[in-house]
Amino acid sequence: MKQGKGLVNGLNDLLESYLRDMEGDVVSVVVSDINGLPIAYKTVINLDINSLSALCALTINHMRKISGETKLGDVEYAIVSYSGYVLYIEYIYGDLLLMVVANNNANMGLITYVTGKYAEYISNLIKSTKDSN
């Protein structure tokens, strides 16, 4: 995906807004391509964004293979609970991923709802940027 400065700035603005809306429950948010290349991110903790993006993409790609082999259907999102945080991964536009790292006591229902809304905002931003080029 070709990135223009306007697109990256728009993504950064949306990710900043997402963190504000989640009022401390979410500590990192990342937009990555399916190959694990981070496109935009915001984080308030010390997190290796490159490793997170690469390993999440690898995991989702393996989950896609499992779903293909087992006929379970397409992967829509994934939630992984760690001892300190929760990782939520959702597809957005095309093969882009939206990865959210939340505190382990965060309201996951709210996170899935707000993440879905921001996935729409990001998709619309990408579509409008493509249409204007």
From TrEMBL:
InterPro entries: LAMTOR3, Roadblock/LAMTOR2_dom. One of its GO terms (biological process) is regulation of TOR signaling. It comes from the Archaea. Residues 12-102 form the Roadblock/LAMTOR2 domain. This is Roadblock/LAMTOR2 domain-containing protein.
